[in-house]
Amino acid sequence: MDRRRFLSRSATVAVGAAVVGGPFQGLAAHAADADGTGADTRHGRPGGYGPLKPVADERDGAVRLHLPDGFRYRSFTPAGSPMTDGAPTPGKHDGMAAFRGRRGTTVLVRNHEVNGPVGAFGDAARAYDPATGGGTTTVVVDRYGNVESSRVSLNGTQMNCSGGPMPWGSWITCEETVNGPDVGNDFTGADNGKLKQKHGYLFEVPADGTSSRVPIRSAGRFAHEAAVYDPVTGAVYLTEDNFGFASGFYRYLPPISPWVGGRLRDGGRLQMLAVKGRPGTDLSAAQRPGAAYDITWVDIDDPDPVFAPGTTNDQAIQAVGNQGRAKGAALFSRLEGAYYQRGVVYFVSTQGGATAPGETAPDGFGDGRGQVWAYNTVTRRLRLVYESPGSARLDLPDNVTVSPRGTLVLCEDGDADNFLRGLTVDGRIFDLARLEPVVGDAGAEFAGATFGPDAHTLYVNVQSRLGMTFAVWGPWHRGGF
Q: Where is the region Disordered (predicted)?
């Protein structure tokens, strides 16, 4: 979208600010199918596309996805395969966004959530930190997953989990870590002493170029997950996935509009969400149907703290969030994917809610199987859109996007089979795809779902050591997408 079109759309949004709220405005916290009135999730449900069946990959004939009747797919750029710039494709494909390319193509900017001091992929001389193996790749494809070109667009970062597309034509990629030479190791066998730079920041990647590899430090050093931009308030909203501890919901207020120079500037103000009049509210716990809260924002005084020698990774990863919680910020469980639509930020709490009867609470902070929240940026009101009643309905949602009809697409990161689920505007969950188990790579999961510019194709990653990207197309008009 060019600048003139974006400003025109922004004006339209601002004029209609009194009625923003998105398609889920009236939805209760527990969806209509939570009482068992919907069909079994494994056999399709209202709003869906019917039962799933194994479908062969059009690239090589292998079965990697289970899809409804009439849907097809092609995988591309698997980990280790050479890109057109000569660099090997890194693994751990994760968050992703689609931009309009030339001659009907789609430009995908894609994260790679690689941890540890394993060395940078691509040209190490250009890397932010030559010791680390995360970053982004940019792939130009057609609507059927045929690759035109692929290249390194950011290297030398670490644990690039999710992020968000910016309407001025950039992808903001987020590091889900605070590793660096100044903090202790995050897992047994790691060696942060080999790192050359501090990590835990946002980086901007132009869709038509490469990143400057300069971090946006004022947006905080914490376990970043996703980022979305709101043209009404001019804020970038940020989620935090702090696996073993409470997480927060943030906003970054840039010092200059991103439209000045076409990029997100450092030097702004970081804030954290708090429930108005109820400091320290624990929103990771089970919520009543239709739960809603008026919220306020508290300032983070030191978004990029200096750590004393001997600081552990657990201490460092809570340092920014603890500043907000000391001022009354709300507690969430593992905030992951986020998406902006019509004045509302939808975001996912992966382990929010109560433990379902007969199930075991997952490891980490939070006992439930997932929540979906909606924050109205104009009214400053937070609502619970959906809370999973158990893993059979929704199992640990992660990345999220939205279809042209307003249905949310949720990528699961569950303990058993992982699905792409749809959540319709009237609160019905249905299955779109199931990932065939990856031999020798049990942690494989869906990530980075995003529709192409013409909505013909859903692009989605499998996040694993043997990761790859899929282009999925079919009769979308038959169901909720």
A: 34-56
**What is the C-alpha separation between 239 and 94, in angstroms, rounded?**
15
Q: In terms of Cα–Cα distance, which of 6, 20, 47, 10 is closest to 429?
A: 47
Q: What are phi and psi of 316, to 5 degrees?
A: -65, -40
Q: Are 257 and 234 within 8 A, CB to CB?
A: yes
> pTM score, two decimals?
0.92
39 has pLDDT over 60: no
User: Which of the four pLDDT bands, split at 50, 70 and 90, describes residue 148?
Assistant: very high
Encoding tokens for residue 131?
Answer: 């010791």
Q: What is the CATH number of domain 3-478?
A: 2.120.10.30
Instruction: Say whether pLDDT at 10 is over 60.
Output: no
Give domain limits for the chain.
3-478
Per residue in 41-51, pLDDT (tens digit) is: 433 445 789 99
Residue 421 has pLDDT above 70, yes or no: yes
Phi, psi of 218 (to 5 degrees): -70, -15
| Contact by Cβ (8 Å): 144, 471 | yes
The arithmetic mean of pLDDT across residues 204-229, rounded, is: 98
How does the average pLDDT of the chain come out, rounded? 90
